[in-house]
Amino acid sequence: MTAFEGVDFYGLEELFTPAEHRLRDTVRAWVQERFLPRIPHDYREGTFSLELVPELAQLGAFGASIEGYDCAGLGAVAVGLLMQELERGDSGLRTFASVQGSLAMQAIFLFGTEQQKQRWLPPMAKGEKLGCFALTEPECGSDPASLVTRAYKTKDGYVLNGEKMWIGNGTLADVAVIWAKLDDDSSADVIRGFLVERGAPGFKSTLIDGKLSLRAAFTAKLEFHNCELPADALLPSARGIKSPFLCLNQARYGIAWGAIGAAMACYDEARRYALQRTQFGRPIAGFQLVQQKLVRMVTEITKAQLLAYRLAQLKDAGSLQHYQISMAKMNNVDAALTIAREARDLLGGVGILDSRQCFRHLCNLESVKTYEGTHDIHTLILGQHLTGIAAFAG
User: Fold this and answer.
1) From 14's CA, which of 170, 226, 324, 351 has a CA 20 to 30 Å away?
2) How far is Cα 20 from Cα 84, in angstroms, rounded to an integer?
3) Active-site residues: which are they?
4) What does the pLDDT read at residue 183?
């Protein structure tokens, strides 16, 4: 396959450390050599190459920011570059790593007991155990505080009832992090986190078929019918809607970087095509409208890179705010989607073939724009910060 050329119009790479360069180059080469040859088949068939999971673990892709527990303990820029290169391959690939590391593992790390951390985090970091994170419900997406899944305290533990929808890795997970409202003597209707293991009585996961986006990712519906859980299934430090949001912020941070990878893949493909495709006696790259498209792509990628890099600085400094993540997720995904559409337009008819990348990225990014906070909800989060008025609240 033709070697990929990234975008670095403002010389941002000069600010990367040698370790960050090495990580980025290692993951970029892995995606090029190991993942991209497989993705047309996986996307066509709606599968994911699970044999790559141990290799992803070797790259440090699972729980990359977590210190200890056999996790990589990477800084914010390194984590971002890792997510960027994975999504340069496919949004489903970055989603797989994000669900495992930024959501499921992060929830256990932030809210679990030491026993829970020791049991789950090291094998999950190695890819020996897989996890999922279940907040969204069939009738509860942008308003997660209205979830209806409930847990009841019993003398032996808990009983869980409800449904979850659009859960990445849901049919693969050895452990599912489930968010539910707990009714007990001390906290009625307070959202708590639970660890539900594969095979728990009353727990069923079903693969969602018919997706036209994120096809190389396993997305599931989870059902709980009087699902009995032991007492140690509770994540004791998780309490209220802010707990899952802390995990979602970590995942949204990765999306802000990942979208840049998808955008660069589309730009690189469009530029190469424009230079070799001849019409009217010369490469179409020589026409003004084509150059305008390429210039717009690089400009938006550069803006997205600067947002993401500053986001990383704030994250490492411990001063990152959720509304700053919202701006980067909202802007970068929207820019990547526009770039994917323009790349498809520039490629013409061949742009719809799965031997090319742009249409696959276009379809995937339609989902990325919607999940983990829709574009509109992130807009309203920013609007609330600017005005002090929550426009999405009744």
Assistant:
1) 324
2) 12
3) 372
4) 81
